[in-house]
Amino acid sequence: MKRGYKVETIKIAAIQMDICHCNKQKNIKKALHFSEEAISKGADIIVLPEVFSTGFCYEELENIAESGSYPTIKELEVFSKKNKCIIVGSIIEKHSSKNRETYTNLGFCLEDGELVGTYTKTHPFGKEKEYFTSGDVIEPIHLKERDLTVGLQICYEMRFPEIARKLCLSGADILMTIAEFPNPREHQWRTLATARAIENQVFHIACNRSGSDPTSTFFGGSMIIDPLGNVIADAKDGECVIIEEIDTSIMKKTRKEIPVFDDRRPDIYK
What we know:
This is Carbon-nitrogen hydrolase family protein. GO terms for molecular function: hydrolase activity. Keywords: Hydrolase. With about 270 residues, this protein is of the alpha/beta class. The protein has one domain: Nitrilase/N-carbamoyl-D-aminoacid amidohydrolase (4-Layer Sandwich). About 30% of the residues lie in helices and about 30% in strands. It is built from 8 helices and 16 strands. The protein has helices at about 25-40, 60-65, 70-85, 130, 160-170, 185-200, 250-255, 260-265, and strands at about 5, 10-15, 45, 85-95, 100-110, 115-120, 140, 145, 150-155, 175-180, 205-210, 210, 215-220, 225, 230-235, 240-245. The strands form 4 sheets. The protein has a 6-stranded mixed sheet with strand order 6-5-4-3-2-16. Strand 4 and strand 5 (about 100-110) form a beta hairpin. Helix 1 (about 25-40) packs parallel to helix 3. The longest helix is centred in the first third of the chain and has 17 residues, at about 25-40. It is globular, with a radius of gyration of 18 Å. The chain starts with a strand and ends in a 7-residue tail after the last helix.
């Protein structure tokens, strides 16, 4: 396959799954099961919820966090290579130094079996701040085999329009939010997800979890939203896979008709 080949239409699947608290083996098996379903329906990109393999398993961080070769990512690499697909998600990462361990929420993007980019969550929320170190870099991930750039943000970060805007100003063709957004914030989730698509005139894949953990319940509500803010796929609640073919040329057309990016005046926004 030609390196850097131009992509305009691409099929994207968002996997909305109930994450079994601290049960990595069960969650990976479930994610791969839903990924098989997505591939059978023609998906090119598969998007998984935030920390899909463990949930926020604070009580066992030392045991479930990963570093080095990232075993969870390695399992997904095999699937990605076999099916020549892209997989996006996040895991809990461990860093060890000077007899001290720290943890981060590590977003990742696989393309055809290769880890092509990572993103460390820059804005932990609430209790996360007690356990996770923040990332300091907001940059999109450039795919190697396809002429396509992914802008990845994680959960709470959808509340910060600066993050999505920076990703899109840096060339993101598709915006993705992976999350564990809990009840009772469904209205906020849907409003924010739609706003990020409209204001950046970009396709937005918002992938949330469903089910419950020891402290929260989750409404799902995963969506695929077009650059005009139309919800073209909606998971509602429960475990499921939503899939939609998108045409990135619509983004260019929208930006030409409503030239928000050309009309920006960053000199007066400081």
